[in-house]
């Protein structure tokens, strides 16, 4: 190849490199002219003026202090010396009818310095031996013959041989308000006296228990109630007893629903148990069963509501008035009676010697009769 041709080739390669290298290092974006034109900005539309709620308002400045909560420790210190643990022994039989002893635990509280103690009837019912443990550690045996009970309201009074005991004061449960602080003190789980706090959740509650018994005018509380608390006091912030712990709702998902017999209900009964050994009530002398569709069919009754007479006490007010077995009471003094609760409330609101007009069915025939209430007989166990 000639020198001229070689020079021409080198020159051509240099020109080509000069054209390629700049294109590899630089990127130039070409934008159409119509896209680079700046659009004019419109002025915002006029809006109505805002009217404030209160131009001069400022938030309340908190002082950092709140209403002081009650000192529950002071209440417990005042009440605890008057609360007792009750331990019982009941003789029962097993599957093979063999007798064995079963132990139980409950609570009570001292209502009189001379050894009078209040508890629930179900705590000591059927017990062969009862021991009371005082706050100072003393164990006192209870004379079984000195137990006085009212099963209808689940109350009992015990007597121990001791003097100068610290007695609690009783408050008026009718004056407490929903939301007030209360403290339940008792022998929870049989592990010694302990306290739980809560508030009054409801008043005037009726609660049907598993035995078919209904308790009335109860105080509902959010204070934790456990087995062994039964019979212990529910007290207000003055350390006064405004209820006697009796029951709780124990269901899955249910919390904070314990119940106490109100002092308004309990005190008159306690006084009768102390004064008489039993409670005197108006009495009709009948056994009763609540009528349902099944009962109406089973006994071929002409009505499916009311209360059927299952027992007539010989010589009692009902027998003297002419009532018989299987008569169905449907009204008392022109007020409908559809349940045992209805009957119980009307009977307890009456007075000894009062006359009540009963409407009843005997077969398909409807009749009325006047019954004169008498004093309830003294319990044979007293």
Q: Secondary-structure blueprint of this entry?
A:
Blueprint lengths: L2 H23 L46 H8 L3 E11 L5 E14 L3 E4 L1 H4 L4 E5 L5 E3 L5 E4 L4 E5 L21 E6 L7 E15 L5 E8 L11 E3 L5 E8 L9 E5 H14 L5 E2 L2 E5 L2 H6 L8 E6 L4 H5 L6 E5 L2 E2 L3 H10 L5 E8 L2 E8 L1 E2 L7
Antiparallel strand pairs: 1-2, 1-4, 2-3, 3-7, 4-5, 6-7, 8-9, 8-11, 9-10, 10-13, 11-12, 12-13, 14-21, 15-16, 16-17, 17-18, 17-19, 19-20
What form results from the Cα inertia axes? Answer: globular
* H/E element order: HHEEEHEEEEEEEEEEHEEHEHEEHEEE
Strand content: 25-35%
N-end to C-end Cα span: 146 Å
- E-strand count: 21
Largest sheet: 7 strands, antiparallel
Question: What structural class is derived from the secondary structure elements?
Answer: alpha+beta
- Rg calculated over all Cα atoms: 41 Å
What is the average per-residue confidence, as pLDDT, rounded to a whole number?
Answer: 84
Helix content: 10-25%
Strand order of the biggest β-sheet: 5-4-1-2-3-7-6
Helical segment count: 7
Q: Which residues form runs of ≥5 with pLDDT under 50?
A: 13-36
Oligomer: single chain
Structure explained in plain terms:
The protein has 382 residues and is an alpha+beta fold. The chain is 18% helix and 34% strand. It contains 7 helices and 21 strands. The radius of gyration is 41 Å and the shape is globular.
Q: Brief description of this entry?
A:
The protein is an alpha+beta fold and 382 residues long. Helices cover 18% and strands 34% of the residues. It has seven helices and 21 strands.
């Amino acid at each position: 190849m000639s020198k001229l041709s070689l020079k021409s080739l080198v020159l051509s390669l240099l020109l080509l490199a000069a054209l390629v290298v700049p294109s590899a290092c630089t990127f130039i974006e070409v934008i159409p002219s119509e896209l680079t034109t700046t659009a004019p900005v419109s002025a915002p539309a006029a809006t109505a003026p805002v009217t404030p709620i209160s131009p001069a308002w400022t938030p309340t400045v908190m002082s950092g202090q709140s209403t002081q909560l009650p000192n529950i420790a002071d209440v417990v210190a005042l009440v605890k010396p008057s609360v007792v643990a009750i331990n019982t022994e009941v003789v029962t039989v097993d599957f093979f009818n063999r007798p064995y002893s079963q132990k139980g635990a409950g609570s009570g509280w001292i209502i009189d310095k001379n050894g009078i103690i209040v508890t629930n009837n179900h705590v000591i019912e059927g017990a062969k031996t009862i021991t009371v443990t005082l706050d100072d550690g003393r164990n006192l045996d209870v004379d079984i013959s000195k137990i006085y009970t009212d099963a209808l309201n689940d109350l009992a009074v015990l007597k121990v041989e001791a003097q100068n005991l610290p007695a609690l004061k009783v408050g008026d449960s009718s004056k407490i308000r929903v939301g007030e602080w209360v403290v339940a003190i008792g022998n929870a789980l049989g592990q010694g006296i302990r306290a739980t706090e809560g508030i009054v959740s409801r008043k005037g509650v009726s609660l049907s228990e598993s035995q078919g018994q209904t308790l009335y005018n109860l105080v509902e509380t959010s204070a934790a109630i456990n087995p062994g608390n039964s019979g212990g006091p529910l007290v207000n912030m003055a350390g006064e007893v405004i209820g006697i712990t009796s029951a709780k709702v124990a269901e899955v998902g249910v919390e904070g629903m314990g119940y106490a017999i109100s002092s308004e209900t309990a005190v008159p009964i306690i006084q009768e148990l102390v004064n008489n050994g039993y409670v005197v009530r108006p009495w009709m002398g009948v056994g009763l069963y609540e009528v349902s569709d099944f009962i109406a069919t089973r006994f071929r009754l002409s009505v499916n509501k009311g209360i059927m007479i299952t027992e007539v006490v010989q010589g009692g007010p009902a027998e003297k008035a002419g009532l018989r077995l299987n008569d169905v009471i449907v009204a008392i003094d022109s007020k409908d009676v559809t349940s045992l609760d209805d009957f119980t409330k009307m009977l307890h609101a009456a007075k000894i010697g009062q006359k009540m007009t009963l409407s009843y069915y005997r077969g398909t025939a409807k009749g009325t009769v006047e019954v004169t209430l008498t004093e309830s007989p003294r319990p044979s166990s007293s």
